[in-house]
Amino acid sequence: MTGTEFRILSSEFITSSASGKDIVDDDMNQIVFAGKSNVGKSSLINSLLNRKKLAKTGNTPGKTRLINFFLINSSFYFVDIPGYGYAAVSRSEKQKWGKMIKIYFSGSKNIRLSITILDIRHDPGEHDIRLIGMLEELKLPQLILLNKKDKLSNNELFVRLSVFSKLFKEYPSVVDVLPYSAVKHFNREKVLEYIESYAAGGPIDNR
Ligand SMILES: Nc1nc2c(ncn2[C@@H]2O[C@H](COP(=O)(O)OP(=O)(O)OP(=O)(O)O)[C@@H](O)[C@H]2O)c(=O)[nH]1
Ligand SMILES: [Mg+2]
Question: Which of 3.40.50.2000, 3.90.1200.10, 3.40.50.300, 3.40.980.10 is the CATH number of 12-199?
Fold first, then answer.
């Protein structure tokens, strides 16, 4: 970290995309939030921004259905991706989401970091592994956050962290694996440090 502390000065909703095509036609860097439905992507965005309701959250999985772009400090975007693996949607809807996510990740030149979110209580599922593998193939740096840490006791946390630390050793794209709590804002400062450095970064040479 540099001497001056990184601060969120402003955050505003800009637009949504249903197709996955890059609809923000500018050169600003993007920090993406991706993960299974209900894992807490939108809650995490609100926690980092110190906003209660900017990104819509809820108990009903599938709350976020479009790719949402939020402009931060007038200089880079947070991108909230709809959650995959929501059981109650039809197969064709799931395929549509999968396609949208793939189009977005492979077509957007300004993504600097994916904040890939898992539930700390559960081992990654098939969809999680597929996402993490796709980011690895695209050589996009990813920070894995193990959300809902507040649901575990210290003993349980110790066990879960040792499980996760082994899981991602073979992925060079994984820059760190950290527990998080969107409710308690646990590790907020540390995640903001990563965001500061990646949001200021230049293009990734991966194509
Ligand atoms: N205890 C606890 N609950 C959380 C945490 N983060 C999110 N939640 C809860 O989990 C539920 C889902 O949160 P969302 O932020 O809407 O999840 P999402 O990943 O954006 O879900 P989709 O938009 O459906 O993909 C809500 O009821 C949140 O209050 C956390 O760190 N701890
Ligand atoms: Mg959401």
Answer: 3.40.50.300
Q: Give pLDDT, residue 51.
A: 83
- How is residue 201 annotated by DSSP? -
Which atom of ligand 1 approaches the CA of 43 most closely?
15
Rounded to whole angstroms, the Cα distance separating 51 from 80 reads 15
What spacing in Å lies between the alpha carbon of 2 and ligand 2's midpoint? 32
Q: Please choose from 16, 32, 36, 38 the residue to mutate so as to test ligand 1's pocket, defined by most ligand atoms within 8 A of CB.
A: 38
Give per-residue pLDDT as tens, 16-56: 888 777 677 788 999 999 999 889 998 999 999 988 788 78
Residue type, 194: Y
Residue with tokens 């809820």: 58
